[in-house]
Amino acid sequence: MNKITTSISVFSFVLISIITILFYFSSSTPNNNQHQAQKSPYKSILRPLFKPKGTVKRFTQHVVPMDIEQINFKDKEGKIVTFADFKGKTLVVNFWASWCAPCVKELPELMRLQESLDKDKFEVILISQDRKMETSVKTLKKLKIINLKNFKDIKRKMAKSYRIIAIPTTLLINENGREIGRYVGEAHWDSDDARDLIHHYAPRD
Q1: Residue 171 is part of which domain span?
Q2: Phi first, then psi: what are they for 88, rounded to 5°?
Q3: Residue 205 domain-assigned (yes or no)
Q4: What is the pTM of this model?
């Protein structure tokens, strides 16, 4: 009887030890998203993840906004610009080209999206992949796109650095210049689904 009691006690001790060890590793694993968020240096800028739906359902998000390299690009006057010049705004950054039919098709929707947003908090900008700035400017004039800033990706350095493998691709950049997520392909940006997504990541006052 004594031996049975002792065996039960030993078994209970071993079982409790195993459960304790498993609990410790499950709560401290680096793949645990909650744990990452608590330890993240960007805790102050984290938002709850938005669940994209409808027309922007394929938008992919990062659990933590991702640092991106500050690459120079040019406006139509040849002035050098970076995302730091837009700090404080949430940016919708569309990579496009005049020879890309889906890119051209979504330009009017991006224009209407800009018209519906608070200009102090949001801005839609275009990053042209055309070799010549004049080519993209001509396309925008033809479509009467007058409220979107168009920039030249110098030697496609931005596209390469940000791993843009297809166009159109649209990045969502937060007010601190970090990538929230991206949408690859043509999307209906003039939609409530798109506006809900973008407003979710509005800059904090």
Answers
A1: 45-200
A2: 100, -10
A3: no
A4: 0.76
